[in-house]
TrEMBL record:
Highest taxon in the source lineage: Bacteria
Record-linked CDD domains: cupin_DAD
GO molecular function, one term: dioxygenase activity
Domain named ChrR-like cupin: residues: 34-126
Annotated keywords: Dioxygenase, Oxidoreductase
Alphabetized Gene3D superfamilies for the sequence: Jelly Rolls
Stated name of the protein: 2,4'-dihydroxyacetophenone dioxygenase family protein
Lineage of producing organism: Bacteria, Bacillati, Actinomycetota, Actinomycetes, Mycobacteriales
Annotated source species: Rhodococcus pseudokoreensis
One Pfam entry name: Cupin_7
Amino acid sequence: MTAQPFTKAPVFSLPQDELLTLNAADIPVIKDALAPGVNYQPLFLDPEVGIWVVLAHFAPGAELPVHLHTGAVHGYTLSGKWAYREYPDQPQTAGSYLYEPGSSIHQFYAPEDNTDDTVVLFIVYGANINFTPEGQFHSVLDAITIKTLTEQLSEAQGLGKVNYLTGGSARYTAN
């Protein structure tokens, strides 16, 4: 049975002719994207709004560079264990939910003694500003960078076109 749209509500809504949904099992894991053992599946990338949602997979011993968040981050650990170098006594394990306010700075790592990959759902607003171990600027990681990496790495890894959700695009209404 097809759901009938409710049209008598006294409010306006965006038109939607289908449910925007996907299954992570249908999205390939893009390998060694940011560093060895740092893999991800893109779920939602919106460069205009500056939000990106990924399932991140970290091999034992994998780590990210020190980075500053320009916006808030929500993280939910599905499996494995990870921590920040700055807070090693607060490891995140399966079932842990973490909120990071904008302007937080830290370095993520998955312990080398993990027996399996760590999988974390990240909802990121804005960008990660990445730094070298010496504290020098390294790179920016944001929705447009993840989008570009997805295109380049999926082709290089023979994964084909990767399906994920995305936001609208800016344009003139009269053109």
